[in-house]
């Protein structure tokens, strides 16, 4: 440490300290004004293809009061939307920021909602203890907002059976959104998020109640400021990430004829969505999954559990017609059926109850083709595989396991004959290993799923396409698909 021991050194030290303090304190040139925030709101809304206006603007000392705000926009074929804000007050703060005060309730109206059979839908967007502040640093404009709670509910119509009662409620909200020159970035947390819905079928009188809850949410997103119509027509580049602590989904259906319930729960999980360089990616992972379904029309409760389920898929999106890469990775670990569910088809415990697993790892290429819908008014892109590498395929269930790897090319579909469905024309090889299949087949016969004649036929078929492996009750097969539509198993031509 250097100690200043002369007047000149003391002066220099004080000067540097003062300069640092000035640098860390918003200067007048960095301070936002209420009018600048109002203009920024209007510019941002305009970039999304909508308009934001106020019936009156009342400036005050370091403030701006906006009465009768209207945010509106429309998209052909989708309808129009209008948000009505009674009053918004912008107040300049000593630190260079601007505080934004909004009412606890804001009305949002959607018109021309033909798909719901109504001309008008009205939502109430509400909040409690909303605290919103705008700041600016260089070319970045940021909004920070917190709230004890916030959500929305349907206000109108209330007498149309096709329109369910819906309420969305989030608690412990804290978000920050930053608008740059061409992109917007957001981060946020929420203690909980819940959606409840109640609907009644006008014809049958059946009532449906759905409740979804998720807790300890952390989100991050990045994307362009995109015109709404352009976003609907084409997928813009974006990234979205969410992590959460647990979730639950409950569904209850009741009617004079039958009733039923469904429950789905999960522990710690995450989700990722992105669209970059013409590829769309979706990835999710959930732990401690539980499922239970009961109903008067079911022979008994259907329940299962899994230690973990993960999915990672990459597909081409927003590309001209052509061939593009794709990938799929699925892993279901320690899947177990409930004993009551096992009892529906194996009450005596003939089959092993070992936890099951399904693991799929594929990649390859697919061709995108424009498909015209009936009437020729719209189109969509259909994806047809052209090549595929099976890096891993594992299915382990009831004491038997199937492992497969290989590489295939798809050359269209084979001609249909004899009323049989058309099959893809393949070229390539697939290696398959089966373990415990004889025991599984015998167990399925013992519980009555098929008779002894079918058991003999299944064993004969396996004997044709596979050869015994080195271990007891194991089979191996090398399948080759040829350009002339042939299938060769372990050197023997089957077709």
General description of the model:
This protein has 495 residues and is mainly β. The chain is built from six helices and 26 strands. It has a 26-stranded antiparallel sheet that branches. A hairpin with a 2-residue loop joins β25 and β26 (492-493). α5 (437-446) runs antiparallel to α6. The longest helix has 18 residues, at 7-24. The N and C termini lie far apart (86 Å).
Features of the shown structure:
495 residues, mainly beta, 26-stranded antiparallel beta sheet, 58% strand, disordered N terminus
Structural class: mainly beta
- What is the molecular shape? elongated
Helix content: 10-25%
Number of helices: 6
Question: What is the structure about, briefly put?
Answer:
This protein has 495 residues and is mainly beta.
Draw up the topology in text.
Elements: H1 7-24, H2 34-47, E1 51-60, E2 63-75, E3 79-92, E4 98-101, E5 105-111, E6 120-128, E7 131-137, E8 140-156, E9 165-179, E10 183-200, E11 207-224, H3 228-233, E12 238-244, E13 246-254, E14 259-266, E15 269-276, E16 279-295, E17 302-316, E18 322-337, H4 339-345, E19 356-372, E20 379-397, E21 400-413, E22 424-435, H5 437-446, H6 452-465, E23 467-468, E24 474-481, E25 487-489, E26 492-493
Antiparallel strand pairs: 1-2, 2-3, 3-4, 3-5, 4-7, 5-6, 6-8, 7-8, 8-9, 9-10, 10-11, 11-12, 11-13, 12-15, 13-14, 14-16, 15-16, 16-17, 17-18, 18-19, 19-20, 20-21, 21-22, 22-24, 23-24, 24-25, 25-26
Helix pairs in contact: 5-6
